[in-house]
Amino acid sequence: MSTRIKKKAHKTRRQIQAEKAAQAIKLVKKANLLSNPLQHLTDFHKYTSKDGSIFELTCDRVMNLPDETVKWIFDLMERNMKKLYEESSWGWNEDAKHTEMTENSAYYLIATSEGKKVGFSHFRFDTDDDIEILYCYELQLEPSARRKGLGRFMMQTLEAMAAKNQMQKVVLTVLRHNPITLTFFHKLGYKQDTTNPSSSEGVDYAILSKQNLRLQKT
Q1: In 21-43, which positions are buried (b, 16+ CB within 10 angstroms) versus exposed (e)?
Q2: Structure pTM?
Q3: Which of 31, 32, 57, 171 is 20 to 30 A removed from 40 (C-alpha atoms)?
Q4: What is the DSSP code (8-state) at residue 199?
């Protein structure tokens, strides 16, 4: 009596990619169910700078923020970035930027000091190139809160939220004619992302990312 040995079915590259894409969507949907991704990351609720300044961090969806907070967010964004946008190929479109910053999927990490709002980061959980990511749209600080390590701490907070929710990396876009910001992110370990346009395309921005090292170690 002969027996037939079944060969183990090997998944094709397309099948593997489809499974990874489906898993990425599942993780992003789960992360987006959170009302406050910062809630259980207690080490990132407060930051004390070397000069003794104390900053408190909170996180919420844009739809849950008071109108006055949303107004301040856009005002700070305009003060810090309008000129840079006008100097870029993007240009400054106030209505389009306001729409982008108030979409339902937007989360805001907000820093306060002595009861005053001094910084924010607009971010979202999303997929990019079939990979689950945390995308940092903005990191903006009031002049009084700069050079105190707050920006670095806020990025570390985003990275912690990415790790907590199993995102593979943190991704962001920086205008190339903003060298101070480019240097800042390079010092934090952000490098050119695989989705960054080639130099031949002549774009005036760079897409940077940082792999989720905490996730890789698990």
Answers
A1: eeebeebbeebbebeebbeebee
A2: 0.91
A3: 171
A4: G
Residue in 181, 134, 200 with CA at minimum distance from that of residue 161: 134
Task: Please choose, from the candidates 42, 73, 54, 84, the residue with its C-alpha nearest in 3D space to the C-alpha of residue 205.
Answer: 84
Beta bridge partners of 100: none
Within 10 A of 95 (CB to CB), how many other CB atoms are there?
7
Query: Residue written as tokens 């809160």?
Result: 145
The answer to whether the beta carbons of residues 150 and 143 sit under 8 Å apart is: no
What six digits make up the tokens of 10?
């090997």
Cα dihedral 92, 98, 99, 104 sign? positive
Cα(first)–Cα(last) distance of the chain, in Å?
Answer: 49
Place of tokens 């390590």: 149
Cite the beta strand spans of the chain per DSSP E: 46-48, 54-61, 107-113, 116-128, 131-141, 169-175, 191-192, 205-211
Q: Which tokens go with 208?
A: 């940077």
For 150-181, the pLDDT digits (tens) are: 999 999 999 999 999 999 999 999 999 999 99
What DSSP designation does 92 have? Answer: -
